[in-house]
Amino acid sequence: MQEKTQVNKIIYLDAAATYQKSDAVIQKMADFLHNDYANAGRGVCERAVKVDDMIAQARRDVAKFIGATDRQVVFVNGTTDAMNMIAQMLKQKNVRTVAVSDLDHHSARLPVENIGAMVVVCPLDDKYNIDVENIPNADVLLITAMSNVIGVPQDVRAIISNAKKQNPDVITVVDAAQYVVHNQIDVTEWGCDFLCWSGHKIGADTGVGVMFIKNPDDFNPVEFGGGMVLRVDENSSVWNTAPDKFEAGTLPLTQIIGLPVAIDALKKNRPDHNLIKYMYAELSKIDGVRIITQPDAAMVSFVVDGMHALDFGALVGVRGLCVRVGNMCASWICKKLGIDGCVRISIGGYNTMADAQAAIQIIKDVIK
Ligand code: PLP
Q1: Ligand 1 centre distance from Cα of residue 135 (Å)
Q2: pTM of the entire predicted model
């Protein structure tokens, strides 16, 4: 990646939007496409059986990565897909109240806001973290484990444990799309009912994501098609057992095969937060830059006085710096912060101090 950025003269500091892919992931997917490609769960020929084994192994690897069993791991297209499926499962349960927070991404909150339940909002503390001591009583609690604007890991275990004191039957749903990049997840320790994340945010390809379901037998499928049904009778159908019953249609095979390679790479080489600390310190010296994140956050977000974030993004963009600008699909936290949008710098394990220094220089050139 470093070699690539230098050759192309691009400083890519937008991993939170999507992570660059390592050669190992690309190679693994190319090998699969060249040598082993066939559908999974459909055939009995040697190739098809081998693909079944590869998918089963990938599922075991993912399960191990988050502290789950493989029956609890459902392959989906991404966080958005998972959240929409979860919302439909909750609708089937006729839940009456859903607690959300202003840290939520549109992908997580809009699906659960649209199932006809009453929405309550968890208060945030003065540093914009979920106020662990004041979790509202609700049937469902949506927890954004790390906001894609604020970049601070939330105390998911304490939040869930306190929510259960209010309602022992609360169904907890964790959006781990950003958290998974920076911190180890243990769904067993957290005790959450659902958790999801997208493969592309950790260096796998787009089109694959993970939905963890603690008690898969307690929920019915919300998508229907091939692969999820055991028997079709005249007037009724019998679903397969989990996880198959949640995986209608052909899976994103190539992306799933690449996912464990991305997980391995991430475990060995998480983003180096010293780069963020360095950029935070340098940005705080620039007149006109107002940083909205904490110094120890996993990303640095800021606004530039007198300049629209989109203009800033374009100006640094033509100088070769890729950062995210706008409302980050997280309108609620932007509103809370009193801003329309901001600039966000985020890093992958492939970024270096040289990238951070070059980015600061470009930003200084733009804000003269
Ligand atoms: N949740 C959070 C916190 C995110 O940052 C994102 C993407 O930026 C999503 C959900 C949605 O992920 P995807 O677009 O991969 O479905």
Answers
A1: 23
A2: 0.96
